[in-house]
Amino acid sequence: MITLSPEVATALFENRPVVALESTIITHGMPFPQNLETARRVEAELRSAGAVPATVAVLEGRLHVGMTDPELEGLARAKGVAKLSRADLAACMATGGTGATTVASTMIAAARAGIAVFATGGIGGVHQGAEQTFDISADLYELAATPVTVVAAGAKAILDLPKTLEVLETLGVPVIAYGQDSFPAFWSATSELPAPLRMNSAAEIAAAHQMRVALELPGGQLVANPIPASAEISQAEMAPVIAQATRDAAAMGISGKAVTPFLLQRIFDLTGGRSLEANIALVLNNARLAAAIATELVNSPQ
Ligand code: PSU
Ligand code: MN
């Protein structure tokens, strides 16, 4: 059912650090060719930090955990790839389909494969206007259910960040800001929202992960790692862009799982590609922290 790449299978067998990566960021989060370049750079970043990358996707019905470079390139070039969240994963596999995994479905694959740490850009969350649309990402429920530590740069301000934090609290998901008190807002390192928890080292985050396992708590942790200051775009600059993109989505009647990809593309256009540069920088930064957490986990066995 799961196809481990030889590199990932060997690393897991030898108890070396492995970090899972999602593929929706490749197919729906970034345009070609930057999506492929970024996917390769993130994998290289993990390797140079001593961890093995395990990019997840469904290819012709098989759930791949760890992809070869030709497989990665095929996915990055493909058009109209399905976006698979928890609800779509089994149906796609059962029908021999191909699709990219979101945070939710990548967590499922990682947990099944025995991978505890996952790096991405931003998680899905509660969308603006959710009190009307009920658009709340399955990522939040997955964080409550599946024991994987997810390193992201917080959540994008295309979402309703206060409501996203409220739902995470309700679901019992620890939200840990790395090295600062405020919850990072993706393109911006800080927000006006205090993060529920703060930790200053990978070792602390790994220890908290292990304590949850020991307590038999089912869910994972969200590590909110601020974008490096050199790559940041201020909230003041992003706010009108996000407002415009959100209005456009509403005017065009975009709904359901098309919302996030639409907004990302629109914001890319409205910022002349600067949002993408920031996005790439923060993903690389998250990969480095995820590698350090995965290293701590294998070096301090429970
Ligand atoms: N946020 C980003 N970039 C992304 C996504 C979210 O900044 O590429 C993707 C992730 O794969 C995430 C998914 O899991 O969108 C959430 O989609 P939805 O809101 O439809 O659950
Ligand atoms: Mn949604």
UniProtKB/TrEMBL annotation:
Q: Which GO terms describe its molecular function?
A: hydrolase activity, acting on glycosyl bonds; metal ion binding; pseudouridylate synthase activity
Cofactor needs: Mn(2+)
A single GO BP term for this record reads: nucleobase catabolic process
**Record keyword Hydrolase present:** yes
**Species the sequence originates in:** Thalassovita taeanensis
| UniProt-annotated binding residues for substrate | K83, V103, S137, A138, D139
Question: What is the similarity comment for this entry?
Answer: Belongs to the pseudouridine-5'-phosphate glycosidase family.
Q: Which Pfam families match?
A: Indigoidine_A (PF04227)
Instruction: State whether it acts alone or in a complex, and with which partners, per the record.
Output: Homotrimer.
The protein depicted here goes by the name: Pseudouridine-5'-phosphate glycosidase
The EC code for this enzyme is 4.2.1.70
For Mn(2+), which residues are the binding ones? D135
Annotated active site: E22, K156
Q: Which gene encodes it?
A: psuG
Function of the protein: Catalyzes the reversible cleavage of pseudouridine 5'-phosphate (PsiMP) to ribose 5-phosphate and uracil. Functions biologically in the cleavage direction, as part of a pseudouridine degradation pathway.
For this protein, the record's InterPro entries field holds: Indigdn_synthA-like (IPR022830), PsuG (IPR007342)
| Keyword set, alphabetical order | Glycosidase, Hydrolase, Lyase, Manganese, Metal-binding
The record's Gene3D superfamilies line, in alphabetical order, gives: Indigoidine synthase domain
